[in-house]
Amino acid sequence: MTTKSVLFNQEPLWLENRQGIRRKLPVAVQSWTYESGSLTQRLRNFYGSGVAVKVLLQCWKTPYLTEHRLLDIPKHEFVLTREVLLHVKGTPLILARTVIPTTTVKTAKSNLSKLGSRPLGEIIFSYPKLERIAMDVALVQLPTWKSTVLDQVPIKEPIWGRRTVYSIANKHMLVSEFFLPEVLLEFK
Question: What are the chain's domains?
Fold first, then answer.
């Protein structure tokens, strides 16, 4: 069986973004988690054009069970799965996982399947009908990360992340972003 992720040994434990959860997050994490715009644009506003994307995985595969449920797709349907590292001059800032059903790729006229090293936010925030539908948060513990990720990214403590369901013209996609220590230091 092929792996569902190059980032995780197992799916992170996600918590629904309910009232009161925001106060439980560290202040720097709150700032990133509740950012309403593009995280890529926020990084570029601070670092300039040096923000780059390293593609770790991009292929069609079956997502995790909770991802199936959030996207309301059949259990064995393949989706475009993309995992990346956003960095500036080799300094890791954000790990991200995107899950895009076929119908969403078609609605976006394949723009989402041909990103290459372009940031996803650059594309999706240009769509006039982009909506944020739902969001979850997670504190990802060290054993959840694959050793290959830990070899590339200096993760030594639990990492906070957010998982957002976006809609483009009523077609959904799921974007999970994990805030690495360096990005939290820069934006306290």
Answer: 15-183 (3.40.1410.10)
